[in-house]
Amino acid sequence: MRAIIAGVLLLALPAAATAQGSSAVHELKASPATVHRGFFDASLKPVLTIDSGDIVRLETASGNPRYFESLGVPKEKIPAELYEVYQGVEGTGRGDHTLNGPIAIRGAEPGDMLEIRIRSVDVRLPIAGQSFAPNRGLLPEEFPYEKARVLWIDLARKTVEYAPGIEVPVKPFWGVIGVAPPPSMGRVPSGPPNVFGGNLDNRDLGAGSTLYLPVHVPNALLSIGDGHAVQGHGEVCLSAVETSLKGEVQVVLHKGQHLRWPRAETATHYITMGLHTDLDEAAKTATSEMLDFLVANKGLSREDAYMLASAAMDLIVTQVVDGTKGIHAMIPKGIFRK
């Protein structure tokens, strides 16, 4: 039964999806009325309701103006729209997890699956921030203090200049894409990722990728934010280059296709994920999920799938700084002839 269930998790048959004949396009910009910050909660009221197959054009915000002001940025250099989005927010925290949503998907029920196609994603504002903090990050004993900096993005060249002679190309993606957690979990912080997705911080989920999430509550309640201009696998200091993004996602509902953990795919790879406070356990989950996929979709015995994974699958450290750490397993599509 486990293998049968896993077989419908990726590349689901079109007949199982409840997409509409023509896709409606919705706009969802970040504003005080359309965002929630720092948590997921099944009791949140949706700010937008869509049908399966609809497209949502997003503009997400990362960067409390008071954060940039505290680092010496003149007000006239801070985009005015950030002051509007962060109206009423106290303190100088950057507010990375300012999440657009939740978005309700009509007809979604517990036991269904969402397919989130990331059609495009790009940086939209030139200002960004990055920091580390005491007792956080991968090396807290070496950096038991706080440091923050402002970074500027060249929107034309799509680069970030770290220092003279050090220039990093942007590779934008949303760090947080998640649905509402099971009601039994109550309100949960958006920092640690979980079965509902959330703060996956997976740099492979950029434009052209697809994320699959299990549905835990009626209407799913999808939220998206935490814009990253660029991030390395691991996100070792605690944060990426945090900034405001724009892009499009298409959401397709698959009825009755139960999913235990988030999965994904790109143009070149199938991806399974493991999330746990222990990286070893996260690696085991990601690998076991990949074996389930290979058995159900590629006609392999579990023993042969295990050996194929050892020959062709890569285990990637997604992030190590969110309490619940992430590993994702990637196997190339090119090795399969059918």
Fold blueprint:
Layout lengths: L1 H5 L18 E5 L5 E3 L1 E2 L7 E3 L4 E5 L5 H6 L9 H6 L12 E8 L7 E11 L3 E6 L14 E8 L4 E5 L2 E4 L3 E6 L9 E2 L7 E3 L10 E5 L7 E9 L10 E2 L2 E10 L8 E3 L3 E8 L2 H20 L3 H11 L1 E6 L5 E8 L6
Parallel strand pairs: 1-5, 4-6
Antiparallel strand pairs: 2-6, 3-13, 5-18, 6-16, 7-15, 7-18, 8-9, 9-10, 10-11, 12-14, 12-16, 15-19, 16-17, 19-20, 20-22, 21-22
What does this structure look like?
The protein has 338 residues and is mainly beta. It has 2 domains: 248 residues, Sandwich (Jelly Rolls), CATH 2.60.120.580; 67 residues, Endonuclease I-creI (Roll). 14% of the residues lie in helices and 36% in strands. The chain is built from 5 helices and 22 strands. Strands 1-5-18-7-15-19-20-22-21 form a 9-stranded mixed sheet. Strands 2, 4, 6, 12, 14, 16 and 17 form a 7-stranded mixed sheet that branches. Strands 8-9-10-11 form a 4-stranded antiparallel sheet, with no helix packed on it. Strand 21 and strand 22 form a beta hairpin. Helix 4 packs across helix 5. It is globular. 45% of the residues are buried. The N terminus is likely disordered.
Integer average pLDDT: 94
> pLDDT below 50 for ≥5 consecutive residues: which ranges?
1-9, 11-16
Q: Into which percent range does the helicity of residues fall?
A: 10-25%
- Proportion of β residues? 35-45%
List keywords for this structure.
338 residues, disordered N terminus, seven-stranded mixed β-sheet, 2 domains, 5 helices, 22 strands
